[in-house]
Amino acid sequence: MVVFEELYVLQLAEDIADDVWKMVFQWNAFIRDVIGKQLIRSADSIGANIAEAFGRYHYGDKINFLYYARGSVFETKYWLNRALKRDIIESEIHRAYAERLNEVAKGVNGYVGKIKAYRYGKVQAFKEPGPTYHVRETEQVIFSEAHLAWLLTDEDTRRTTLQHIRQTTTLPNPNPNPNPDPDPDPNLG
User: Fold this and answer.
1) What would you report as the CA-atom Rg of the chain, rounded to the nearest whole angstrom?
2) Domain segments of the chain: what residues?
3) For every residue of the chain, which 3-state class applies, written as one string?
4) Of 57, 77, 84, 140, which is most buried by a Cβ count within 10 Å?
5) Beta carbons of 45 and 69 less than 8 angstroms apart
6) Fold for domain 4-122+136-171?
């Protein structure tokens, strides 16, 4: 049985959070207070939400907490961008964190994919016969290649990429079928 401390994506997130803590601890009091605390909170939140997702029972809850972890990845990148722009960290440090955050983002995406596979019965471990459910197939991914590339770009390129993403991406309808039972049994009256 897997324990949550053995999740590779969680280990990556924990390493980032601990390294961010060590880095911010060396900053002066003003910078720690203004940017450092936010950066530490967002970095800590990545792993905390992955751990909470692991501990949740329902698939939907697990996925929601992984979405929160994804948001924290982007928030952490935002605060690192601010630190770079304000000459608090050097570009090499910024790039190293961006690459590590990119790995976490890919790991979160994989974790969500695995949960969805279990949720929709695509995993071969479950052979038990049961009722038939109608589920709309989707190939939607959490992180598009443009989103992942965004983590590794400088601020000017990122701004242009973000504008392109906003212009070309449509958000999925969370309830595409307003009828909860697409194939009702006519005998149930």
Assistant:
1) 20
2) 4-122+136-171
3) CCCHHHCHHHHHHHHHHHHHHHHHHCCCHHHHHHHHHHHHHHHHHHHHHHHHHHHCCCHHHHHHHHHHHHHHHHHHHHHHHHHHHCCCCCHHHHHHHHHHHHHHHHHHHHHHHHHHHHHCCCCCCCCCCCCCCCCCCCCCCCCCHHHHHHHCCCHHHHHHHHHHHHHHCCCCCCCCCCCCCCCCCHHHC
4) 77
5) yes
6) de novo design (two linked rop proteins) (1.20.1440)
pTM of the full structure: 0.63
Residue of 122, 144, 137 lying closest to 177 (CA atoms) = 137
The per-residue pLDDT for range 37-77, each reduced to its tens digit, is 999 999 999 999 999 999 888 988 999 999 999 999 999 99
Over the stretch 93-108, which tens digit does the pLDDT of each residue have? 999 999 999 999 999 9
Residue in this structure with the two tokens 């590794």, named with its chain if needed: 152
- In the numeric block, the tokens 């695995």 are attached to 114
